[in-house]
Amino acid sequence: ENAGAVDIGDGLAAVFKIESHNHPSFIEPYQGAATGVGGILRDIFTMGARPIVNMNSLRFGNLDKAKNRYLLEGIVGGIAGYGNCMGIPTTGGEIYFEDCYDGNPLVNAFSLGIVKKDKIFLGTATGINNPVIYVGSRTGKDGIHGVTMASEEFSEEAQEKRPTVQVGDPFTEKLLLEACLELMKKDFIVGIQDMGGAGLTCSSCETAARAGNGIEIDIDLVPLREEGMEPYEIMLSESQERMLIIAKAGREKEVKEIFDKWDLEASVIGRVTGDGIMRVMKSGKVVAEIPAKALADEAPLYNRPSKRPDYQDELNTLDLEKIDEPENFNDIFFKILSSLNIANKAWVYEQYDHMVRINSVVLPGSDASVIRIIESGKALAMTLDGNGRYCFLDPFEGGKIAVAEAARNIACSGAKPLAITNCLNFGNPEKPEIMWQLSKCVEGMISACKAFEVPVISGNVSLYNETMGEGIYPTPVIGMVGIIEKSKPYCTQWFKDDGDLILLLGDSREELGGTEYLKTIHKMVKGVPPRCDLETEKNIQNACISGIENGIIKSAHDCSDGGIAI
Protein backbone atom coordinates (compact mmCIF):
# COMPACT_ATOMS: atom_id res chain seq x y z
CA GLU A 1 0.00 0.00 0.00
CA ASN A 2 0.96 3.66 -0.15
CA ALA A 3 1.99 3.79 3.53
CA GLY A 4 1.84 1.73 6.71
CA ALA A 5 -0.60 2.19 9.59
CA VAL A 6 -0.32 1.31 13.27
CA ASP A 7 -3.05 1.27 15.93
CA ILE A 8 -2.61 4.05 18.52
CA GLY A 9 -5.80 3.37 20.47
CA ASP A 10 -9.06 5.33 20.76
CA GLY A 11 -10.12 4.08 17.32
CA LEU A 12 -7.22 5.90 15.65
CA ALA A 13 -4.23 4.85 13.56
CA ALA A 14 -0.97 6.61 12.75
CA VAL A 15 -0.10 6.38 9.06
CA PHE A 16 3.53 7.04 8.20
CA LYS A 17 6.29 6.38 5.72
CA ILE A 18 9.70 7.59 4.58
CA GLU A 19 10.81 7.87 0.95
CA SER A 20 13.88 9.02 -0.93
CA HIS A 21 14.24 11.68 -3.61
CA ASN A 22 18.02 11.47 -3.91
CA HIS A 23 18.65 11.45 -7.64
CA PRO A 24 16.15 14.21 -8.55
CA SER A 25 17.55 16.43 -5.78
CA PHE A 26 21.08 16.15 -7.16
CA ILE A 27 19.94 17.14 -10.65
CA GLU A 28 17.57 19.95 -9.59
CA PRO A 29 17.86 20.49 -5.82
CA TYR A 30 14.89 22.76 -5.14
CA GLN A 31 12.28 20.90 -7.19
CA GLY A 32 13.79 17.50 -6.42
CA ALA A 33 13.42 18.05 -2.68
CA ALA A 34 10.08 19.85 -2.96
CA THR A 35 8.46 17.07 -4.96
CA GLY A 36 9.90 14.54 -2.53
CA VAL A 37 7.86 16.23 0.19
CA GLY A 38 4.81 16.39 -2.07
CA GLY A 39 5.07 12.70 -2.93
CA ILE A 40 5.31 11.50 0.66
CA LEU A 41 2.36 13.69 1.66
CA ARG A 42 0.20 12.12 -1.07
CA ASP A 43 1.15 8.67 0.19
CA ILE A 44 -0.27 9.65 3.58
CA PHE A 45 -3.54 11.31 2.59
CA THR A 46 -4.19 8.65 -0.05
CA MET A 47 -4.75 6.35 2.93
CA GLY A 48 -7.43 8.69 4.29
CA ALA A 49 -5.14 10.25 6.90
CA ARG A 50 -4.61 13.96 7.39
CA PRO A 51 -0.85 14.64 7.50
CA ILE A 52 0.12 16.36 10.75
CA VAL A 53 3.93 16.34 10.71
CA ASN A 54 6.92 16.08 8.36
CA MET A 55 10.58 15.28 9.00
CA ASN A 56 13.62 14.76 6.80
CA SER A 57 17.00 13.04 6.78
CA LEU A 58 19.71 14.70 4.66
CA ARG A 59 23.29 13.88 3.61
CA PHE A 60 25.71 16.18 1.80
CA GLY A 61 29.34 16.30 0.81
CA ASN A 62 31.99 18.69 2.12
CA LEU A 63 30.72 22.28 2.22
CA ASP A 64 34.12 23.57 1.12
CA LYS A 65 32.88 22.78 -2.39
CA ALA A 66 30.56 25.31 -4.01
CA LYS A 67 28.42 22.59 -5.60
CA ASN A 68 27.61 21.09 -2.21
CA ARG A 69 26.67 24.49 -0.79
CA TYR A 70 24.40 24.99 -3.79
CA LEU A 71 22.78 21.60 -3.19
CA LEU A 72 22.33 22.28 0.52
CA GLU A 73 20.64 25.64 -0.03
CA GLY A 74 18.42 24.35 -2.83
CA ILE A 75 17.33 21.17 -1.06
CA VAL A 76 16.58 22.85 2.26
CA GLY A 77 14.74 25.59 0.37
CA GLY A 78 12.67 23.04 -1.54
CA ILE A 79 11.68 21.17 1.63
CA ALA A 80 10.74 24.42 3.36
CA GLY A 81 8.95 25.85 0.35
CA TYR A 82 6.66 22.87 -0.15
CA GLY A 83 6.03 21.90 3.48
CA ASN A 84 5.44 25.45 4.68
CA CYS A 85 2.97 26.18 1.89
CA MET A 86 1.07 22.99 2.74
CA GLY A 87 0.64 24.16 6.33
CA ILE A 88 2.22 21.04 7.81
CA PRO A 89 4.95 21.42 10.46
CA THR A 90 8.45 20.06 9.89
CA THR A 91 9.53 19.28 13.42
CA GLY A 92 12.74 17.28 13.20
CA GLY A 93 15.20 15.20 11.28
CA GLU A 94 18.94 14.82 10.85
CA ILE A 95 21.71 16.12 8.61
CA TYR A 96 25.23 14.76 8.07
CA PHE A 97 28.22 15.69 5.93
CA GLU A 98 30.69 13.17 4.48
CA ASP A 99 32.92 13.25 1.40
CA CYS A 100 31.20 10.16 -0.03
CA TYR A 101 28.02 12.18 -0.59
CA ASP A 102 29.79 14.77 -2.77
CA GLY A 103 28.20 13.57 -5.99
CA ASN A 104 25.12 12.02 -4.47
CA PRO A 105 23.23 13.87 -1.71
CA LEU A 106 20.56 11.94 0.15
CA VAL A 107 17.11 13.44 0.62
CA ASN A 108 14.76 11.22 2.63
CA ALA A 109 11.32 12.66 3.41
CA PHE A 110 9.06 11.39 6.22
CA SER A 111 5.42 12.21 6.89
CA LEU A 112 2.84 11.04 9.42
CA GLY A 113 -0.92 11.43 9.50
CA ILE A 114 -3.83 10.41 11.71
CA VAL A 115 -6.92 8.51 10.54
CA LYS A 116 -9.81 6.65 12.12
CA LYS A 117 -8.73 3.05 11.80
CA ASP A 118 -12.05 1.98 10.26
CA LYS A 119 -11.71 4.73 7.63
CA ILE A 120 -8.42 3.68 6.03
CA PHE A 121 -8.56 3.71 2.22
CA LEU A 122 -6.65 1.30 0.02
CA GLY A 123 -5.37 1.53 -3.54
CA THR A 124 -7.55 -1.21 -5.04
CA ALA A 125 -9.53 -1.29 -8.28
CA THR A 126 -12.51 -3.36 -7.17
CA GLY A 127 -15.90 -3.69 -8.84
CA ILE A 128 -16.10 -4.62 -12.53
CA ASN A 129 -17.08 -1.60 -14.66
CA ASN A 130 -16.48 0.85 -11.83
CA PRO A 131 -15.24 4.14 -13.31
CA VAL A 132 -11.58 5.15 -13.12
CA ILE A 133 -11.33 8.88 -12.43
CA TYR A 134 -8.27 11.08 -12.91
CA VAL A 135 -8.10 14.03 -10.47
CA GLY A 136 -5.67 16.87 -9.82
CA SER A 137 -3.22 18.67 -12.09
CA ARG A 138 -3.06 18.14 -15.82
CA THR A 139 -0.42 15.86 -17.31
CA GLY A 140 2.70 17.34 -18.89
CA LYS A 141 6.08 16.11 -20.05
CA ASP A 142 7.88 16.67 -16.75
CA GLY A 143 9.18 13.65 -14.90
CA ILE A 144 9.16 11.23 -17.84
CA HIS A 145 11.69 8.48 -17.07
CA GLY A 146 12.04 9.79 -13.51
CA VAL A 147 12.02 6.27 -12.08
CA THR A 148 14.51 5.07 -14.69
CA MET A 149 16.82 7.96 -13.84
CA ALA A 150 16.62 7.05 -10.15
CA SER A 151 17.78 3.51 -10.96
CA GLU A 152 21.04 4.50 -12.63
CA GLU A 153 24.45 5.67 -11.53
CA PHE A 154 25.29 9.27 -12.38
CA SER A 155 27.92 10.23 -14.93
CA GLU A 156 29.22 13.56 -16.25
CA GLU A 157 25.96 13.93 -18.20
CA ALA A 158 23.80 14.06 -15.05
CA GLN A 159 22.60 17.63 -15.65
CA GLU A 160 21.18 16.59 -19.02
CA LYS A 161 18.53 14.70 -17.05
CA ARG A 162 16.93 17.84 -15.60
CA PRO A 163 13.71 17.30 -17.65
CA THR A 164 13.19 14.02 -15.77
CA VAL A 165 12.75 15.95 -12.50
CA GLN A 166 9.15 16.74 -11.62
CA VAL A 167 7.93 20.27 -10.92
CA GLY A 168 5.82 20.74 -7.80
CA ASP A 169 2.98 23.11 -6.91
CA PRO A 170 2.20 22.96 -3.18
CA PHE A 171 -0.88 25.15 -3.49
CA THR A 172 -2.48 22.67 -5.90
CA GLU A 173 -1.46 19.85 -3.57
CA LYS A 174 -3.19 21.60 -0.68
CA LEU A 175 -6.39 21.75 -2.72
CA LEU A 176 -5.96 18.10 -3.69
CA LEU A 177 -5.50 17.09 -0.05
CA GLU A 178 -8.66 18.86 1.08
CA ALA A 179 -10.70 17.59 -1.87
CA CYS A 180 -9.61 13.98 -1.30
CA LEU A 181 -10.30 14.10 2.44
CA GLU A 182 -13.74 15.59 1.78
CA LEU A 183 -14.44 12.87 -0.80
CA MET A 184 -13.41 10.17 1.66
CA LYS A 185 -16.12 11.26 4.07
CA LYS A 186 -18.68 10.20 1.47
CA ASP A 187 -19.56 6.71 0.27
CA PHE A 188 -18.54 7.40 -3.31
CA ILE A 189 -15.25 5.55 -3.88
CA VAL A 190 -13.75 2.08 -3.45
CA GLY A 191 -10.06 2.84 -4.04
CA ILE A 192 -7.57 5.66 -4.46
CA GLN A 193 -3.93 5.72 -5.55
CA ASP A 194 -1.28 8.42 -5.77
CA MET A 195 0.24 8.91 -9.22
CA GLY A 196 3.90 8.74 -8.25
CA GLY A 197 6.73 6.92 -9.99
CA ALA A 198 5.86 6.04 -13.62
CA GLY A 199 2.61 7.99 -13.25
CA LEU A 200 -0.51 6.47 -14.78
CA THR A 201 1.27 3.23 -15.62
CA CYS A 202 2.11 2.27 -12.04
CA SER A 203 -1.02 3.66 -10.42
CA SER A 204 -3.34 1.79 -12.80
CA CYS A 205 -1.39 -1.49 -12.67
CA GLU A 206 -1.01 -1.43 -8.89
CA THR A 207 -4.69 -0.77 -8.18
CA ALA A 208 -5.78 -3.48 -10.62
CA ALA A 209 -3.25 -6.05 -9.40
CA ARG A 210 -4.18 -5.59 -5.73
CA ALA A 211 -7.81 -6.36 -6.57
CA GLY A 212 -7.00 -9.19 -8.99
CA ASN A 213 -8.74 -7.25 -11.75
CA GLY A 214 -7.85 -5.48 -14.97
CA ILE A 215 -8.11 -1.83 -15.90
CA GLU A 216 -8.76 -0.01 -19.17
CA ILE A 217 -7.50 3.54 -19.74
CA ASP A 218 -8.53 5.78 -22.65
CA ILE A 219 -5.70 8.28 -22.92
CA ASP A 220 -7.78 10.56 -25.15
CA LEU A 221 -9.64 11.42 -21.93
CA VAL A 222 -6.56 12.26 -19.83
CA PRO A 223 -6.36 16.02 -19.10
CA LEU A 224 -3.18 17.36 -20.73
CA ARG A 225 -1.35 20.66 -20.42
CA GLU A 226 0.76 20.10 -23.55
CA GLU A 227 -0.34 19.31 -27.08
CA GLY A 228 0.99 16.43 -29.13
CA MET A 229 1.93 14.12 -26.26
CA GLU A 230 2.41 10.51 -27.30
CA PRO A 231 0.62 7.68 -25.44
CA TYR A 232 4.02 6.61 -24.12
CA GLU A 233 4.62 10.06 -22.62
CA ILE A 234 1.13 10.32 -21.14
CA MET A 235 1.41 6.96 -19.40
CA LEU A 236 4.91 7.61 -18.00
CA SER A 237 4.66 11.30 -17.10
CA GLU A 238 5.31 11.98 -13.42
CA SER A 239 3.58 15.35 -13.31
CA GLN A 240 2.80 16.10 -9.69
CA GLU A 241 -0.38 16.58 -7.66
CA ARG A 242 -2.42 13.84 -9.37
CA MET A 243 -4.52 10.94 -8.06
CA LEU A 244 -6.30 7.95 -9.57
CA ILE A 245 -9.71 7.24 -8.03
CA ILE A 246 -11.85 4.14 -8.42
CA ALA A 247 -15.41 5.34 -7.85
CA LYS A 248 -18.62 3.44 -7.41
CA ALA A 249 -20.57 3.22 -10.65
CA GLY A 250 -23.14 6.01 -10.81
CA ARG A 251 -21.23 8.29 -8.43
CA GLU A 252 -19.17 10.08 -11.07
CA LYS A 253 -21.24 13.27 -10.86
CA GLU A 254 -20.85 13.59 -7.07
CA VAL A 255 -17.10 13.00 -7.29
CA LYS A 256 -16.73 15.65 -9.97
CA GLU A 257 -18.76 18.16 -7.96
CA ILE A 258 -16.35 17.90 -5.03
CA PHE A 259 -13.31 18.47 -7.22
CA ASP A 260 -15.06 21.30 -9.08
CA LYS A 261 -15.57 22.96 -5.70
CA TRP A 262 -11.80 22.84 -5.11
CA ASP A 263 -11.10 24.02 -8.69
CA LEU A 264 -9.43 20.74 -9.70
CA GLU A 265 -9.68 18.49 -12.73
CA ALA A 266 -11.81 15.34 -12.41
CA SER A 267 -12.21 13.23 -15.55
CA VAL A 268 -13.43 9.68 -16.08
CA ILE A 269 -10.63 8.08 -18.10
CA GLY A 270 -11.44 4.39 -17.93
CA ARG A 271 -13.07 1.47 -16.15
CA VAL A 272 -12.28 -1.62 -14.11
CA THR A 273 -12.33 -4.88 -16.06
CA GLY A 274 -12.32 -8.50 -14.99
CA ASP A 275 -9.66 -9.89 -17.31
CA GLY A 276 -6.57 -8.94 -15.27
CA ILE A 277 -5.16 -6.87 -18.15
CA MET A 278 -3.97 -3.27 -18.02
CA ARG A 279 -5.12 -1.97 -21.39
CA VAL A 280 -4.41 1.45 -22.93
CA MET A 281 -6.72 2.76 -25.64
CA LYS A 282 -6.37 5.67 -28.07
CA SER A 283 -8.87 6.60 -30.76
CA GLY A 284 -10.70 3.35 -30.11
CA LYS A 285 -7.62 1.20 -30.69
CA VAL A 286 -5.48 -0.75 -28.25
CA VAL A 287 -2.01 0.82 -28.06
CA ALA A 288 -0.70 -1.20 -25.11
CA GLU A 289 -1.80 -4.10 -22.94
CA ILE A 290 -0.08 -6.24 -20.36
CA PRO A 291 -1.21 -8.34 -17.38
CA ALA A 292 -1.46 -5.95 -14.44
CA LYS A 293 0.18 -8.42 -12.06
CA ALA A 294 3.15 -8.81 -14.42
CA LEU A 295 4.10 -5.19 -13.80
CA ALA A 296 2.99 -4.82 -10.19
CA ASP A 297 3.76 -8.15 -8.51
CA GLU A 298 5.75 -10.46 -10.75
CA ALA A 299 8.99 -8.60 -11.36
CA PRO A 300 12.10 -10.82 -11.50
CA LEU A 301 13.60 -11.75 -8.13
CA TYR A 302 17.37 -11.39 -8.22
CA ASN A 303 19.74 -13.46 -6.13
CA ARG A 304 22.73 -11.22 -6.69
CA PRO A 305 26.23 -12.33 -5.74
CA SER A 306 27.47 -11.00 -2.41
CA LYS A 307 31.08 -10.60 -1.33
CA ARG A 308 32.78 -9.13 1.72
CA PRO A 309 35.05 -6.35 0.38
CA ASP A 310 38.77 -7.11 0.18
CA TYR A 311 39.48 -3.84 1.98
CA GLN A 312 37.30 -4.68 4.99
CA ASP A 313 40.04 -6.21 7.16
CA GLU A 314 42.30 -3.20 6.70
CA LEU A 315 39.35 -0.87 7.27
CA ASN A 316 38.52 -2.55 10.58
CA THR A 317 42.10 -2.46 11.86
CA LEU A 318 42.63 0.26 14.45
CA ASP A 319 45.45 0.23 16.99
CA LEU A 320 44.45 2.58 19.80
CA GLU A 321 48.03 2.53 21.09
CA LYS A 322 49.02 4.50 17.99
CA ILE A 323 46.41 7.20 18.60
CA ASP A 324 48.11 9.99 20.53
CA GLU A 325 46.31 11.28 23.58
CA PRO A 326 45.49 14.99 23.18
CA GLU A 327 47.59 17.49 25.08
CA ASN A 328 44.71 19.94 25.40
CA PHE A 329 41.28 18.38 25.71
CA ASN A 330 39.55 21.78 25.57
CA ASP A 331 40.95 22.42 22.09
CA ILE A 332 39.79 18.98 20.97
CA PHE A 333 36.35 19.57 22.44
CA PHE A 334 35.87 22.85 20.57
CA LYS A 335 37.14 21.38 17.30
CA ILE A 336 34.58 18.59 17.53
CA LEU A 337 31.86 21.06 18.49
CA SER A 338 32.61 23.05 15.35
CA SER A 339 32.59 20.05 12.99
CA LEU A 340 29.73 20.08 10.50
CA ASN A 341 28.17 16.92 11.93
CA ILE A 342 28.06 18.28 15.49
CA ALA A 343 27.56 22.02 14.97
CA ASN A 344 24.19 23.67 15.53
CA LYS A 345 21.77 23.00 12.65
CA ALA A 346 19.41 25.88 13.43
CA TRP A 347 20.16 27.47 10.04
CA VAL A 348 18.42 24.49 8.48
CA TYR A 349 15.44 23.83 10.72
CA GLU A 350 14.59 27.49 11.31
CA GLN A 351 13.60 27.65 7.64
CA TYR A 352 10.86 25.12 8.35
CA ASP A 353 7.58 26.12 9.95
CA HIS A 354 7.47 23.80 12.96
CA MET A 355 4.60 25.48 14.83
CA VAL A 356 1.82 25.56 12.22
CA ARG A 357 -1.35 23.73 13.41
CA ILE A 358 -0.11 24.39 17.01
CA ASN A 359 0.21 20.71 17.93
CA SER A 360 4.01 20.64 18.14
CA VAL A 361 5.02 19.86 21.72
CA VAL A 362 8.78 19.29 21.37
CA LEU A 363 10.39 21.37 18.63
CA PRO A 364 13.53 20.66 16.58
CA GLY A 365 16.74 20.18 18.53
CA SER A 366 15.86 17.49 21.07
CA ASP A 367 16.23 13.72 20.69
CA ALA A 368 12.77 13.27 19.19
CA SER A 369 9.99 15.60 18.14
CA VAL A 370 6.65 15.22 19.92
CA ILE A 371 3.24 15.97 18.40
CA ARG A 372 -0.03 16.19 20.33
CA ILE A 373 -2.98 14.09 19.10
CA ILE A 374 -5.97 16.33 19.67
CA GLU A 375 -8.52 13.54 19.29
CA SER A 376 -7.17 11.43 22.16
CA GLY A 377 -4.99 13.60 24.39
CA LYS A 378 -2.04 11.29 23.73
CA ALA A 379 1.16 12.29 21.95
CA LEU A 380 3.44 10.73 19.36
CA ALA A 381 7.22 10.96 19.44
CA MET A 382 9.17 10.47 16.23
CA THR A 383 12.77 10.44 15.11
CA LEU A 384 14.94 9.74 12.06
CA ASP A 385 18.30 8.08 12.59
CA GLY A 386 21.09 6.50 10.58
CA ASN A 387 24.88 6.37 10.68
CA GLY A 388 26.45 5.61 7.31
CA ARG A 389 29.95 5.64 8.75
CA TYR A 390 29.13 2.84 11.19
CA CYS A 391 27.47 0.83 8.41
CA PHE A 392 30.52 1.29 6.19
CA LEU A 393 32.77 -0.13 8.90
CA ASP A 394 30.41 -2.96 9.90
CA PRO A 395 27.08 -3.19 8.03
CA PHE A 396 25.51 -5.69 10.43
CA GLU A 397 26.41 -3.75 13.55
CA GLY A 398 25.56 -0.46 11.83
CA GLY A 399 22.10 -1.75 10.95
CA LYS A 400 21.53 -2.74 14.57
CA ILE A 401 22.76 0.62 15.83
CA ALA A 402 20.47 2.56 13.48
CA VAL A 403 17.40 0.89 15.00
CA ALA A 404 18.80 1.04 18.54
CA GLU A 405 19.59 4.74 18.32
CA ALA A 406 16.12 5.51 16.98
CA ALA A 407 14.60 3.58 19.89
CA ARG A 408 16.96 5.39 22.28
CA ASN A 409 15.78 8.78 21.03
CA ILE A 410 12.16 7.73 21.42
CA ALA A 411 12.86 6.49 24.95
CA CYS A 412 14.61 9.76 25.87
CA SER A 413 11.39 11.59 24.99
CA GLY A 414 9.41 9.38 27.37
CA ALA A 415 7.65 7.42 24.62
CA LYS A 416 7.36 3.69 24.04
CA PRO A 417 8.36 2.53 20.52
CA LEU A 418 5.42 1.55 18.30
CA ALA A 419 6.73 0.83 14.80
CA ILE A 420 9.30 1.87 12.23
CA THR A 421 9.64 2.80 8.60
CA ASN A 422 12.97 2.72 6.80
CA CYS A 423 14.74 4.12 3.77
CA LEU A 424 17.66 2.01 2.52
CA ASN A 425 20.17 4.18 0.65
CA PHE A 426 22.92 2.15 -1.03
CA GLY A 427 25.20 2.11 -4.04
CA ASN A 428 25.02 -0.19 -7.06
CA PRO A 429 23.73 -3.63 -5.94
CA GLU A 430 25.16 -5.20 -9.08
CA LYS A 431 28.53 -4.92 -7.35
CA PRO A 432 28.95 -7.88 -4.95
CA GLU A 433 30.52 -5.68 -2.27
CA ILE A 434 27.50 -3.35 -2.25
CA MET A 435 25.13 -6.31 -2.16
CA TRP A 436 27.02 -7.60 0.87
CA GLN A 437 26.60 -4.25 2.62
CA LEU A 438 22.88 -4.21 1.82
CA SER A 439 22.21 -7.75 3.02
CA LYS A 440 24.23 -7.34 6.22
CA CYS A 441 22.58 -4.03 7.09
CA VAL A 442 19.14 -5.56 6.66
CA GLU A 443 20.13 -8.53 8.82
CA GLY A 444 21.30 -6.17 11.55
CA MET A 445 18.09 -4.17 11.37
CA ILE A 446 16.01 -7.35 11.58
CA SER A 447 17.81 -8.49 14.73
CA ALA A 448 17.24 -5.12 16.40
CA CYS A 449 13.58 -4.89 15.39
CA LYS A 450 12.99 -8.33 16.89
CA ALA A 451 14.76 -7.33 20.10
CA PHE A 452 12.71 -4.15 20.48
CA GLU A 453 9.54 -5.88 19.25
CA VAL A 454 8.75 -3.16 16.73
CA PRO A 455 7.18 -3.95 13.35
CA VAL A 456 8.41 -2.43 10.09
CA ILE A 457 5.21 -1.08 8.53
CA SER A 458 6.53 0.76 5.47
CA GLY A 459 9.68 1.84 3.70
CA ASN A 460 11.62 2.59 0.57
CA VAL A 461 14.80 1.42 -1.15
CA SER A 462 17.09 3.80 -3.04
CA LEU A 463 19.88 2.05 -4.94
CA TYR A 464 22.50 3.11 -7.48
CA ASN A 465 23.57 6.07 -5.36
CA GLU A 466 26.89 6.39 -7.18
CA THR A 467 28.53 9.07 -9.27
CA MET A 468 31.43 8.33 -11.60
CA GLY A 469 31.71 4.89 -10.02
CA GLU A 470 32.06 6.22 -6.46
CA GLY A 471 29.33 5.04 -4.11
CA ILE A 472 27.94 6.47 -0.89
CA TYR A 473 28.31 4.88 2.51
CA PRO A 474 25.59 2.27 3.09
CA THR A 475 23.00 4.50 4.74
CA PRO A 476 19.86 2.92 6.15
CA VAL A 477 17.68 5.60 7.74
CA ILE A 478 15.22 4.52 10.42
CA GLY A 479 12.04 6.45 11.11
CA MET A 480 10.61 5.36 14.46
CA VAL A 481 7.36 6.44 16.08
CA GLY A 482 6.52 6.00 19.76
CA ILE A 483 3.51 6.81 21.90
CA ILE A 484 3.13 8.82 25.10
CA GLU A 485 -0.08 7.84 26.83
CA LYS A 486 -2.55 10.42 28.06
CA SER A 487 -1.43 12.14 31.29
CA LYS A 488 2.10 10.73 30.94
CA PRO A 489 4.95 13.27 30.83
CA TYR A 490 7.27 13.88 27.91
CA CYS A 491 10.96 14.69 28.25
CA THR A 492 13.55 16.85 26.47
CA GLN A 493 17.34 16.69 26.47
CA TRP A 494 18.11 20.04 28.09
CA PHE A 495 19.17 20.42 31.74
CA LYS A 496 16.35 21.88 33.81
CA ASP A 497 17.46 23.05 37.27
CA ASP A 498 20.63 23.86 39.18
CA GLY A 499 21.62 21.05 41.49
CA ASP A 500 19.98 18.26 39.49
CA LEU A 501 21.95 15.02 39.59
CA ILE A 502 23.54 13.87 36.31
CA LEU A 503 23.63 10.11 35.77
CA LEU A 504 25.07 7.93 33.01
CA LEU A 505 23.01 4.83 32.20
CA GLY A 506 25.11 2.04 30.70
CA ASP A 507 28.81 1.24 30.41
CA SER A 508 31.60 3.06 28.57
CA ARG A 509 34.23 1.03 26.72
CA GLU A 510 37.36 1.81 24.72
CA GLU A 511 35.58 2.17 21.39
CA LEU A 512 36.75 4.84 18.96
CA GLY A 513 35.98 3.19 15.62
CA GLY A 514 33.90 5.41 13.34
CA THR A 515 33.69 8.23 15.87
CA GLU A 516 33.48 11.92 15.12
CA TYR A 517 36.63 12.37 17.21
CA LEU A 518 38.62 10.00 15.02
CA LYS A 519 37.33 11.61 11.81
CA THR A 520 37.64 15.25 12.87
CA ILE A 521 40.90 15.15 14.82
CA HIS A 522 42.82 12.30 13.17
CA LYS A 523 41.20 12.36 9.69
CA MET A 524 40.51 8.63 9.96
CA VAL A 525 37.49 6.44 9.25
CA LYS A 526 38.66 3.11 10.60
CA GLY A 527 38.06 0.45 13.21
CA VAL A 528 34.77 -1.12 14.18
CA PRO A 529 31.76 0.79 15.48
CA PRO A 530 30.68 0.46 19.12
CA ARG A 531 29.21 -2.95 19.90
CA CYS A 532 25.46 -2.91 20.48
CA ASP A 533 24.19 -5.41 23.05
CA LEU A 534 20.49 -5.40 22.28
CA GLU A 535 19.34 -6.90 25.59
CA THR A 536 21.31 -4.33 27.60
CA GLU A 537 20.11 -1.57 25.28
CA LYS A 538 16.49 -2.54 25.79
CA ASN A 539 16.86 -2.70 29.58
CA ILE A 540 18.47 0.75 29.70
CA GLN A 541 15.75 2.24 27.53
CA ASN A 542 13.00 0.70 29.64
CA ALA A 543 14.64 2.12 32.76
CA CYS A 544 14.78 5.55 31.12
CA ILE A 545 11.11 5.45 30.11
CA SER A 546 10.09 4.31 33.58
CA GLY A 547 12.13 7.09 35.20
CA ILE A 548 10.47 9.72 33.01
CA GLU A 549 6.97 8.35 33.63
CA ASN A 550 7.54 8.39 37.38
CA GLY A 551 8.91 11.92 37.44
CA ILE A 552 12.41 10.86 38.47
CA ILE A 553 14.08 11.93 35.22
CA LYS A 554 13.71 15.58 34.16
CA SER A 555 15.92 15.46 31.07
CA ALA A 556 17.44 12.69 28.98
CA HIS A 557 19.77 12.57 26.01
CA ASP A 558 21.25 9.61 24.17
CA CYS A 559 25.04 9.30 23.84
CA SER A 560 25.74 9.11 20.12
CA ASP A 561 27.66 11.48 17.82
CA GLY A 562 30.57 12.97 19.72
CA GLY A 563 30.02 10.76 22.76
CA ILE A 564 29.36 11.89 26.32
CA ALA A 565 31.16 15.20 25.80
CA ILE A 566 28.66 16.33 23.19
From TrEMBL:
Residues crossing the lipid bilayer are none
Q: What InterPro entries does the database record attribute to this sequence?
A: PRibForGlyAmidine_synth_PurL (IPR010074), PurM-like_C_dom (IPR010918), PurM-like_C_sf (IPR036676), PurM-like_N (IPR016188), PurM-like_N_sf (IPR036921)
Question: What GO annotations for molecular function exist for this entry?
Answer: phosphoribosylformylglycinamidine synthase activity
The family database entries (Gene3D superfamilies) matched by this protein are listed as:
PurM-like C-terminal domain, PurM-like, N-terminal domain
Q: What is this protein called?
A: Phosphoribosylformylglycinamidine synthase subunit PurL
Coiled-coil residue windows: none
EC category: ligase
Q: Where is the PurM-like C-terminal domain?
A: 130-280, 498-565
